[in-house]
Every structure is written in structure tokens, then in C-alpha cells.
Design goal:
The chain is an alpha/beta fold. The protein is built from six helices and eleven strands. The longest helix has 15 residues, at 111-125.
């Protein structure tokens, strides 16, 4: 069974950023994605053009557009905001343009260009990517996730990032097999502590 410093489950933009920045900091990273390509949903955003971000750089004003729930984005925006997002893509050769309402799109209006940048970012950082790979179980040992069982084998890691997105119905994206104490299979929700997004592990490489 192969071991990694970090395993990221989910190949959307959040998973790609987590995997890419961790690998750039020198960590051995595996990203698992069930679809054929990472960033598949990027291709349908903005009617196929991908609205990358908005030019509103004040995090609080930015979040006002999302109503009462908008404040949940504040910590993330202060850590990696609009300008950092724009710089990320432009420094990797993607021309951007701003349209009505401050909406930022790829210069050629093609979401595929965004997807290519994300894939190249991981490749350059040395992320090991496995697509068409379904996570079947996450096995816990002594109160922490120890390994994942997938359609392409088992993999262990020191740390894990679950970036599988939200669900329209209340069911978890990944079942968890608990092996500490009496062995009983169970399906549980993951409730992430809000402080995770305030850490700068992606800059320092400190995963724990």
C-alpha cells in the first residue's frame, strides 16, 4: 500500500488548490477524483465560460452578495482573496477580462482554459492524480483517518483533505469504516472546524 503525506479526495478547484499548494511546499500528495478529468464542473460554470471571480476586492462587500451565509467565506477570502486568485491564473498565462458587474472571465471565454491551468498547476507541482477513482471507504485507526479504500486500491496518508463539495440531499460523499475499538461499519458526517481555513498550511507546508 502506497503512503503519502497528504491525500486529497475530490478534484474540483478546492481539491486542486489544496493538492497543488501542498505539493509545491514539498509534500508527497495524491489526489483522487471519480470523474475522467479534474475540474469537470468548471466546464459548465458561467454557461461554459467559467466566471473565475469578481473584481470586488473587499471581502465583506464581496460576501454581501451571498446573503446571511456569505460571512462563512470571509476567512477563506482573507487568506486567499480576489487579487490572489487573479494573480494565480495570470501568472500561469491565462488572460482574464472583466465584464459587467465586475465578473472576471477567461479572455477567450472558454472554461476549458481554466481547467487546463488547474491541471498544469498540479502536474508542475508533482501531484499524483488518479481519475476515475471512486473512494469506497475511509478507514479510521485510533481516532484518525488512516487510509482510503478505492476502486484502484488502498492508499494511506498522514493527512487528508475532503474536498468533495456539497450535496443536495443529506448523505455523505464517503463512507467511513471505524476500526478503533469494536469494529462496526458506520456512515458519518464530517463537520470541519472553521479554524482550518485560517491556517496557512498551503504556504508553510505544515499539514498538522
Amino acid at each position: 500500500m502506497k503512503h503519502f503525506d497528504l491525500i486529497v479526495v475530490g478534484g474540483g478547484p478546492a481539491g486542486v488548490f489544496a493538492a497543488g499548494f501542498a505539493a509545491s511546499a514539498g509534500k508527497k500528495v495524491l489526489l483522487l477524483e471519480k470523474n475522467r478529468h479534474c475540474g469537470a464542473k468548471v466546464l459548465i460554470t458561467g454557461k461554459g465560460r467559467c466566471n473565475v471571480t469578481n473584481r470586488e476586492e473587499d471581502p465583506r462587500r464581496f460576501c454581501e452578495n451571498f446573503g446571511r451565509q456569505g460571512k462563512s467565506f470571509l476567512t477563506a477570502l482573507y487568506a486567499f482573496g480576489v487579487q490572489e486568485t487573479i494573480d494565480f491564473f495570470e501568472h500561469r498565462g491565462l488572460e482574464l477580462k472583466t465584464e459587467r458587474g465586475g465578473r472576471v472571465f477567461p479572455g477567450q471565454g472558454n472554461a476549458t482554459d481554466v481547467q487546463k491551468v488547474l491541471e498544469r498547476f498540479m502536474a508542475d507541482a508533482g501531484v499524483v492524480v488518479k481519475t476515475r477513482c471512486t473512494v469506497k471507504e475511509m478507514v479510521q485507526l485510533e481516532g484518525r483517518i488512516d487510509r482510503v479504500m478505492t476502486s484502484q486500491g488502498s492508499f494511506s496518508a498522514d493527512s487528508f483533505v475532503i474536498a468533495t463539495g456539497g450535496c443536495l440531499i443529506r448523505k455523505p460523499a464517503v463512507p467511513v469504516m471505524v476500526t478503533s475499538g469494536p469494529r462496526m461499519p458506520d456512515i458519518v458526517w464530517f463537520h470541519l472546524n472553521p479554524h482550518w481555513s485560517r491556517s496557512d498550511w498551503w504556504r508553510t507546508g505544515r499539514l498538522n
